[in-house]
């Protein structure tokens, strides 16, 4: 059995990484961006919140240069440890690229069993199904839709820029996950 997680604002706090990458797009590459306005929508796939004409590949390269700013979300290490104690696998399903996702997990000190990258919204249902995920933990309504589409328990964490409406259960953050998991299994 497996439990899936979204990456950004669920397992890792990558806001500082992306804010700094955006600031560098402005200062070093002449992009005209409202950095703080864009950060209010953070958590969506970059192609959905970056303005048309923004060099997405350059943005991802700049993110990789700022990885030291990545931190684990509160409770993330304990959540993964609880999954391991339960005999489950920890899977990440994210809109981030594979390279960015792997690097952010490493920078945050988190080890998972598998990463499915470049997947967003309802598209996350396919890897959830493939991995036989019993539950999916995310911070966005789209994550909850994907969980339901895959027949998984939709576990929302209120740590992103959007409330995880449609969740079967909402946790304040991952610090509550080990207790919830022990009751749910």
How far from one another are the termini?
A: 11 Å
Count of runs of 4 or more consecutive helical residues: 9
Main CATH class of the largest domain = Alpha Beta
The number of E-state strands comes to 8
Q: Using the 3D structure, state the CATH architecture of the largest domain.
A: 3-Layer(aba) Sandwich
Q: What is the CATH topology assignment of the largest domain?
A: Rossmann fold
- Superfamily (CATH H level) name of the largest domain: HAD superfamily/HAD-like
Oligomer: single chain
CA-atom Rg in angstroms: 16 Å
Strand order of the largest sheet: 5-4-1-6-7-8
SSE arrangement, N to C: EEHHHHEHEHEHEHEEH
Largest sheet: 6 strands, parallel
Task: Kindly describe this structure.
- It contains nine helices and eight strands.
- The protein is an alpha/beta fold and 185 residues long.
- It folds into two domains: 2-13 and 70-184, HAD superfamily/HAD-like (Rossmann fold, 3-Layer(aba) Sandwich); 15-69.
- It has a six-stranded parallel β-sheet with strand order 5-4-1-6-7-8, with helices on both faces. The chain has a two-stranded antiparallel ribbon with strand order 2-3.
- Helix 5 runs parallel beside helix 9.
- The chain is globular and about 50 Å long.
- It starts with a strand and ends with a helix.
Overview in brief:
Helices cover 42% and strands 16% of the residues.
Give keywords.
about 180 residues, alpha/beta, Rossmann fold, 2 domains, 9 helices
Secondary-structure topology with pairs:
Elements: E1 2-5, E2 12-13, H1 15-29, H2 35-39, H3 46-49, H4 56-65, E3 71-72, H5 76-85, E4 89-93, H6 98-107, E5 114-116, H7 125-130, E6 133-138, H8 141-149, E7 153-157, E8 169-171, H9 177-184
Parallel strand pairs: 1-4, 1-6, 4-5, 6-7, 7-8
Antiparallel strand pairs: 2-3
Helix pairs in contact: 1-4, 4-6, 5-9
């Amino acid at each position: 059995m497996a439990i899936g997680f979204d990456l950004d604002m669920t397992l890792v706090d990558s806001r500082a990484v992306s804010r700094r990458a955006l600031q560098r797009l402005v200062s070093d590459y002449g992009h005209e961006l409202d950095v703080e306005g864009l950060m209010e929508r953070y958590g969506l796939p970059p192609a959905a919140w970056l303005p048309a004409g923004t060099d997405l590949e350059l943005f991802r390269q700049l993110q990789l240069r700022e990885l030291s700013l990545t931190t684990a979300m509160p409770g993330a290490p304990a959540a993964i440890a609880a999954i391991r104690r339960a005999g489950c696998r920890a899977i990440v399903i994210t809109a981030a690229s594979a390279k960015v996702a792997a690097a952010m997990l490493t920078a945050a000190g988190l080890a998972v069993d598998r990463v499915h990258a470049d997947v967003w919204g309802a598209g996350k249902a396919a890897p959830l199904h493939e991995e036989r995920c019993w539950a999916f933990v995310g911070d966005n309504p789209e994550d909850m839709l994907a969980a339901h589409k895959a027949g998984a328990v939709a576990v929302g964490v209120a740590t992103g820029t959007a409330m995880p409406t449609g969740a079967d259960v909402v946790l304040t953050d991952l610090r509550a996950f080990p207790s919830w998991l022990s009751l749910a299994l």
